């Protein structure tokens, strides 16, 4: 069988379910928010209602919906008291917003390696990188797999550090023993960008552990202005991060679909993992007891480095998978290899070579990692098994063609 990339028939003749998924409920919600006649949160119900349901589902005290996940991280850092000159420890393997948000508020992001199995931040690497300037840690629940929050909370407690969860992949995720994201009592930031597990095209949210924190988050996201103020009292230097009522209305419907979709993704992911295990051609992200509920924003896997099949070109495998009809992407780059990471404020104690040497897992997954978008997990059993078939077809073919 010729690969589709070489002119053969694609393995998939029909596409996977489209994303975003929507129906008449989103249409009705949009019309409902339209007919409110007031389209910003200050005079509408949509943001308030959405925040309440989202916080409830995630075990948080309250929430503030914002324009996107990047700005959610920026205002969460400010609300947590992170100041210019402070250091924030982040995983080296993440989307750039995790570290860029720190830079945007004048703090320095310190990248550390991730665990070889879960690809989430390695608590021992966090501890090894604490300095007198360290103020916060941002774990990223990679692809929806919860980080080792028990260890991270012990570290945060011992060194008096703020924890802020980057939950951009983790809507509805649960950690060890079924703990919800809000149960950890920290700020947590979500994204509702077009690809994410629920979306309004753009959007974000900061989950808050108590009323005092909610007020600070609100201030930083509302130009420093307290709710109800009529006297132009701007008590902190904030930004306008507010979300429109249209987005919030759509997100309420998307939230109502989340848990059913998470169950479908988990069930199909399990099928897929069994098929991938049988083939043993690639190394999937591992799953520990920290992922009690894993919503699978991505199916993330690594091509073996020194495989018996020969050294496959990762980018070529991605292109070949796309040609077979699989929504595949290259894994994130290590953040310390991205030029803007070194614009001020940047780490001063160490250079890029240091991080390359100290982040072997990040180096490997960034170079050899591939991810498949979660819409491929929203089909039926055959749709799911086709992912494994496509991987087998592409990997075996490219290896033997070498
Ligand atoms: C998507 C994402 C963000 C940023 O969210 P936006 O809404 O796109 O600004 C932050 N962190 C991670 C890990 C993400 O994947």
Strand content bin: 5-15%
Structural class: alpha/beta
Q: State the helix count.
A: 12
Outline type = globular
Structure explained in plain terms:
With 402 residues, this protein is of the alpha/beta class. The chain has two domains: 24-254, 3-Layer(aba) Sandwich (Aspartate Aminotransferase, domain 2); 258-400, Aspartate Aminotransferase, domain 1, CATH 3.90.1150.10. The protein has helices at residues 24-35, 46-57, 69-79, 97-104, 123-128, 149-159, 211-221, 245-279, 314-323, 352-358, 360-368, 381-400; strands spanning 62-66, 87-91, 108-112, 134-137, 162-166, 174-175, 179-180, 187-191, 204-208, 283-284, 298-302, 328-330, 369-373. Strands 1-9-8-5-4-2-3 form a seven-stranded mixed beta sheet, sandwiched between helices. The protein has a four-stranded antiparallel beta sheet with strand order 10-11-13-12. It has a two-stranded antiparallel ribbon with strand order 6-7. α2 packs parallel to α8 and α3 (69-79) crosses α7 (211-221). It starts with 23 loop residues before the first helix and ends with a helix. Residues 68-70, 94-95, 97-98, 140, 166, 168-169, 191, 193, 204 line the site of pyridoxal-5'-phosphate (PLP).
Write a concise keyword list for the protein shown above:
13% strand, binds pyridoxal-5'-phosphate, 38% helix, 7-stranded mixed β-sheet, 13 strands, alpha/beta, Aspartate Aminotransferase, domain 2, 12 helices, Aspartate Aminotransferase, domain 1
């Amino acid at each position: 069988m010729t690969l589709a990339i070489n002119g053969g028939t694609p393995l998939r003749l029909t596409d996977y379910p489209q994303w975003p998924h929507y129906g008449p409920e989103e249409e009705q919600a949009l019309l409902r928010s339209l007919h409110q006649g007031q389209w910003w949160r200050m005079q509408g119900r949509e943001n308030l209602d959405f925040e309440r349901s989202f916080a409830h589902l995630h075990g948080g005290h309250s929430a503030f919906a914002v324009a996107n996940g990047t700005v959610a991280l920026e205002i969460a850092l400010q609300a947590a008291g992170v100041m210019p000159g402070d250091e924030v420890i982040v995983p080296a393997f993440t989307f750039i917003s995790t570290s860029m948000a720190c830079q945007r508020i004048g703090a320095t992001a310190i990248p550390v390696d991730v665990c070889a199995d879960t690809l989430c931040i390695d608590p021992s690497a966090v501890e090894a990188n604490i300095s007198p300037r360290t103020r916060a840690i941002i774990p990223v629940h990679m692809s929806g797999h919860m980080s080792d929050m028990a260890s991270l909370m012990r570290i945060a407690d011992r060194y008096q550090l703020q924890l802020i969860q980057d939950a951009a992949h983790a809507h509805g995720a649960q950690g060890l023993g079924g703990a919800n994201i809000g149960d950890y009592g920290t700020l947590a930031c979500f994204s509702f960008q077009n690809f994410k597990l629920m979306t309004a095209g753009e959007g974000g949210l900061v989950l808050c552990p108590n009323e005092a924190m909610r007020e600070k988050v609100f201030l930083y996201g509302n130009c420093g202005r307290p709710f109800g103020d009529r006297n132009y009292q701007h008590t902190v230097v904030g930004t306008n991060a507010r979300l429109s009522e249209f987005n919030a209305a759509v997100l309420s419907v998307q939230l109502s679909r989340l848990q059913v979709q998470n169950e479908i993704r988990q069930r199909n992911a399990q099928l897929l993992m069994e098929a991938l295990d049988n083939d043993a051609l690639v190394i999937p992200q591992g799953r520990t007891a920290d992922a009690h509920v894993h919503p699978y924003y991505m199916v993330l896997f690594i091509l073996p480095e020194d495989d018996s099949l020969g050294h496959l070109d990762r980018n070529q495998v991605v292109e070949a998978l796309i040609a077979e009809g699989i929504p595949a992407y290259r894994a994130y780059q290590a953040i310390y290899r991205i030029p803007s990471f070194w614009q001020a404020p940047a780490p001063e104690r160490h250079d890029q070579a240091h991080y390359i040497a100290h982040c072997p897992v990040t180096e490997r997954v960034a170079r050899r990692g591939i991810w498949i978008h979660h819409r491929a997990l929203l089909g039926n059993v055959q749709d799911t098994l086709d992912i494994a078939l496509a991987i087998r077809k592409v990997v075996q073919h490219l290896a033997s063609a070498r």
